[in-house]
Every structure is written in structure tokens, then in C-alpha cells.
Amino acid sequence: MTRILLFIGTNLAVLLVLSIAAHLLGIDTYLAQHGSTLGGLLVWAALFGFGGSIISLLMSKSMAKMAMRVQVIGQSSDPTEQWLLSVVEHHARNVGVGMPEVGIFDSPQPNAFATGANRNSALVAVSTGLLQRMNRPEIEAVLGHEMTHVANGDMVTLTLLQGVVNTFVLFLARVVGMVLDRGSQSGRGIGSLMTFWVLQFVFGLLATPIVMWFSRWREFRADRGGAKLAGTDKMIAALEDLKRVHEPLPAKQFAAFGIADPGVGGGIKRLFMSHPPLEERIAALRALGTR
After folding, report:
1. End-to-end CA distance of the chain
2. How far is Cα 288 from Cα 291, in angstroms, rounded to an integer?
3. CA distance 3 to 121
4. Does the N-terminal or the C-terminal CB of the chain have fewer CB atoms within 10 Å?
5. What distances in angstroms separate CA 92 from CA 95, 98, 139, 149, one per listed residue?
6. 240 is catalytic
7. Distance CA 247, CA 242 (A)
8. pLDDT > 70 fraction of the chain, expressed in percent and rounded
9. Catalytic residue among 81, 138, 140, 146
10. Mapped to the 3 state alphabet, what secondary structure does the chain carry?
11. How many angstroms separate the CA atoms of 7 and 59, rounded?
């Protein structure tokens, strides 16, 4: 219920801010002169801006299973799989969420991710490489990190943020496209359409650092959660192990939901990283002290 109210409130807040800004800038008058209405454009931007994000969120579990070829663990006699289920169940009970589905995907690189539209019906998966490389205390910490993402509702919050960004991008791209296409009587000619797609890409690129900032911030928070559930020393050991050898998730669309990402470099490129550098995450945990 809280997430639904947050979703509705976020939509209303975005529409209100855009309405006020459009009125102050005279955009509503311009749109009226060209056969459009501010209200109609705002509803269109919100519908498609949030719609795509919400659909992706609702399909995230099934998409992850298919794209990553996740094998969900059922009633298994395998001792490792039984142990994984028991650890996730223990973490779920401690953070107060329902037991998620637990799965394994085939990848030589150590990694893990969590996804799902509902914190009480999520999916947590680990790679075969993680099971082979890490010891059980480190895996326990990684699972604690992922379960903290689930408990915090990070998948939903990131979707809401992306939806807000998408709404602003669509609205601005459509308005600027209409303004630039002055050669068309209606402001809806081919020039407007082409300009809209170009501006949507440009504005989307410029807005991406906002989403990536939140993604990096939530990783620090998930690390603290993993440290609380399994022990700071275990969480640090897991990150140290990842630092020695790490590659991104095979399915790029789920990179932001993995335990780590090698990143794209320093400088301005840092703005587009979904995860903070592992060195910074380790330093932040060490500042907490080990236990």
C-alpha cells in the first residue's frame, strides 16, 4: 500500500511541477496556439514515462529468469542449494520480508542480483562462479546485501525515479521539438518528430546521472545491510574477493541490480556508473568497524 501511495503521489507531484513550470514559461499558451493542451501533453508524458518503467518492473522476475537463465531452487537434496535456501530464509526473517525465490545462473564470474516488483515476492539469484569462488561466510554476506535491496524496496524506488526522469524527458523533448519545428503550421511535422527523438536521447543521457547517483547510494546502504546481517568483516571479505576478479552480469539490463559492476572509468564517466568503485565501498565498511 505504501508503494502504491508513493507511486500515485510521485505522479501527481511531477505533473504539478511541470504544470507550474509550463505556465510560468508560457508553454501552455504556446501549446494552445498550436492545437495542443498542456494537460494532454502532461498526461501523455506521465503515461509513457511511468508506463514503460512500471511494465519493466512487473516483468522483471520473468525477464531475469529468461535472460539470465536462472534455475530456481525448489525442493532440492543438494547440500549447497539447501544451504542457500536456509541462509536466504534466515535473512528474510531478520529483515521482515517474505521468502523470495532463490535461483542459480550459469556464469563463471562471481555475481548475484535481486529483482521483483514486490518485496514479499522477490527473486534472489547467485552465479555458479560466486558459489565456486567464495566461501560460505562471504556468500552469506552477499546474500545479505541482496536481501537488503529487497527489504528496502530498491527495485521499486529505482523504477519510480526512472519514471520521473522519463516523464520530464518526454515532456521537454516534445515541447522543445515543437518549438524548433516552427516551419510546420501545427508544430507536428517530420522535423518535429525527428527532433523529438534526438532530444529524447540527449535529455535522457543528461538525466541518467541522477538515476545512477541513486543506484550508487543504495549500494552503500545495501553493503551496510549485508554487514549487519552477516558481519562487517564478511562483507568486506566478499567485496575484496570481487575486486580481485569481476565482470558485469551477462544481461546488461540487470547490471544495476547486481552485487557489483566494474564501472566505466573515472572523471565524468563516473556519473554513469551504477555501482560505486569497490575500493570506496570497502573503505565505507571499514569506517564502521569490523565485528
Report:
1. 36
2. 9
3. 14
4. N
5. 5, 6, 15, 11
6. no
7. 9
8. 79
9. 146
10. CHHHHHHHHHHHHHHHHHHHHHHHCCHHHHHHHCCCCHHHHHHHHHHHHHHHHHHHHHCHHHHHHHHCCCEECCCCCCHHHHHHHHHHHHHHHHHCCCCCEEEEECCCCCCEEEECCCCCCCEEEEEHHHHHHCCHHHHHHHHHHHHHHHHHCHHHHHHHHHHHHHHHHHHHHHHHHHHHCCCCCCCCCHHHHHHHHHHHHHHHHHHHHHHHHHHHHHHHHHHHHHHHHHCHHHHHHHHHHHHHCCCCCCCHHHHHHECCCCCCCCHHHHHHCCCCCHHHHHHHHHHHCCC
11. 17
Q: 251-278 in b/e burial notation, b at 16+ Cβ within 10 A?
A: beebbbbbbbbbbeeeeeeeeebbbbbb
pTM of the full structure: 0.80
User: What residue has cell string 501527481?
Assistant: 12
- How many angstroms separate the CA atoms of 32 and 1, rounded? 38
| Residues across the chain | 291
Would you place residue 187 in the very low, low, confident or very high pLDDT band (cuts 50, 70, 90)? very low
Per-residue pLDDT band at 192 (split at 50, 70, 90): low
d(CA 137, CA 83): 12
Find the range with the poorest average confidence among 4-8, 108-112, 114-118, 286-290: 4-8
- Find, among 4, 14, 12, the residue nearest to 162 by Cα: 14
- Using CA atoms, how far apart are residues 101 and 120, in angstroms rounded to an integer? 10
Output the nine-digit C-alpha cell for 257.
541490480
Residue 171: burial class (beta carbons within 10 Å; 0-12, 13-18, 19+): buried
